[in-house]
Specification:
binds flavin-adenine dinucleotide, alpha/beta, eight-stranded mixed beta sheet, 11 helices, single chain
Length: 429
């Protein structure tokens, strides 16, 4: 089979079929812009609570990062909690960390309640040290999490790592049993169907071009016509563009890429990663990988920083296969069947943000950590909007920064510099 430049997960999934979707209504109580995990989770909750809600999506339902990701539903935030605590203090950090643990329960409850067949399993995650110093840092982190947050993780020295992974390249690891894996496209399809069952209407090919404040709410001009809304929630992630200029200036779109091999059989898969964990390493230019339900190695990384194009996908496929075989020489003759890319939403502070800008609600900035947290924040912001408590959410308690010196207006000219900087950091630390 030749390489398919498409998302493997989508080949396992039936998204809501377009015939069953609705024409754009003239108005809704609330319009959600972007049909990814947080947008659909919010729409489901809003509809359950009796709000009329329309979800507008520029492409197809679940088209963005939400069905292209590694399917790792992880504890914690993008940044290490000790760093978050140094910035924002203990109490807020505790709230954010507790929320990250709660987000796994939220996913589990929704999957079970809505009977979403997406392979959700609490297989835990394995963080791996690329250098001896990384393992020392992990030991400190494990101790810190246990002392400060009562959260138990387990460090694994290099001599015992074979019990977790059949690779010789790492210097130790850390296991967190709370994290889980899902098939992300099946999950996002299930969320979309659940939102639809609750009464939300879903509108693909309805890119929002402009949002105007009018008396009593907002008027949205879209590719598919106009719609009026009392309130608007934006969840456009790394694909945030000119329709919401204040948000666009706060989000850097960064590419991440994944390959999937041919199926290698259960025995071989269990030999390589015995507990079927969600695995990632400690580098800035990190690799992340896991097995699919049909035992393909799904192997991702930030092989290029630019968002996906046919040429970045092809280049990344080559780089990722090389990295994969370096880690697992056992896979040198295994064919790569799929390669794809997606765009992450990185804020300048690498923290998730929810709140209100120019009167419009938003939840975004997941920086590669949005499968579980995006589900949770979607649900929480829906409740907070209806209860008038968005400003009290912990993610609204710290500023949502613009670029230093205002040097960014939505064109990420500095991505090659960030890429270079990360490579230097990986050499130094
Ligand atoms: C390759 C990759 C791997 C990742 N791996 C993981 C992982 O393993 N674990 C994890 O937790 N997170 C991971 N992430 C991040 C995770 O996928 C996201 O944080 C999460 O899906 C939340 O996505 P979102 O809905 O905010 O954005 P998206 O899923 O990108 O959705 C945004 C949607 O908004 C739509 N849109 C944009 N502008 C408009 C407009 N004007 N009008 C209408 N619609 C619009 C887009 O078409 C898009 O469908 C990964 C991301 C990528 C790209």
């Amino acid at each position: 089979m030749s390489l398919k430049e498409k998302v493997f997960w989508l080949d396992t999934t039936v998204m809501p079929s377009e015939e069953n979707l609705h024409d754009l209504p003239a108005k809704a109580d609330l319009v959600v812009v972007g049909a990814g995990i947080p947008g659909l989770s919010a729409a489901r909750q809003l509809a359950i609570r009796g709000t009329s809600v329309a979800v507008l999506e520029a492409e197809t339902i679940g088209w963005g990062a939400s069905s292209r990701n590694g399917g790792m539903a992880l504890t914690g935030l993008k940044l290490d909690a000790a760093l978050v605590e140094a910035r924002y203090g203990h109490d807020l950090t505790r709230q954010l960390f507790d929320d990250s643990i709660a987000s796994l329960n939220t996913v589990e409850q929704i999957v079970s309640h809505e009977q979403i067949d997406c392979g959700f399993a609490r297989t835990g995650h394995l963080l791996l040290a690329n250098k001896p110093a990384h393992y020392e840092a992990m030991q400190k982190e494990a101790e810190w999490y246990s002392q400060h947050f009562n959260h138990v993780t387990r460090t694994v020295p290099r001599s015992e790592l074979q019990g977790e992974i059949a690779s010789q390249v790492y210097f130790g690891g850390l296991v967190d049993e709370v994290s889980a894996g899902v098939n992300p496209a099946q999950y996002v399809a299930g969320l979309a169907k659940a939102a639809g069952r609750a009464g939300a209407t879903l509108h693909p090919h309805a890119r929002v071009l402009q949002i105007d404040k009018v008396s009593g709410g907002y008027q949205l001009r879209t590719q598919g016509g106009e719609i009026a809304a009392s309130q608007v929630l934006v969840t456009t992630g790394g694909y945030t563009k000119t329709a919401t200029p204040s948000l666009q200036k706060r989000i850097i779109p960064i590419g991440s890429y994944i390959i999937a091999t041919e199926p290698i059989g259960e025995n071989m898969a269990r030999r390589l990663i015995p507990h079927n964990r969600m695995v990632f390493d400690y580098k800035h230019f990190l690799n992340y990988y896991r097995f699919s339900a049909d035992h393909r190695m799904v192997f991702g990384g930030r092989a290029a920083f630019f968002p996906e194009t046919p040429s970045t996908i092809r280049d990344s496929a080559r780089i990722l296969q090389h990295e994969m075989v370096h880690i697992f020489p056992q896979l040198k003759d295994v064919k790569v069947e799929y390669a794809w890319g997606g765009t992450l939403d990185f804020p300048f502070d690498q923290m998730p943000h929810t709140g209100q800008l120019d009167g419009i609600y938003y939840t975004l900035g997941f920086a590669g950590h949005g499968v579980a947290l995006g589900t949770h924040l979607g649900l929480k912001i829906a409740d907070a909007i209806l209860d008038g408590k968005v400003a009290e959410m912990p993610y609204a308690a710290y500023p949502f920064p613009l670029a230093p010196l205002g040097l960014y207006n939505g064109n990420p000219w500095f991505l090659p510099l960030i890429g270079l900087w990360h490579r230097i950091l990986d050499i130094l630390y």
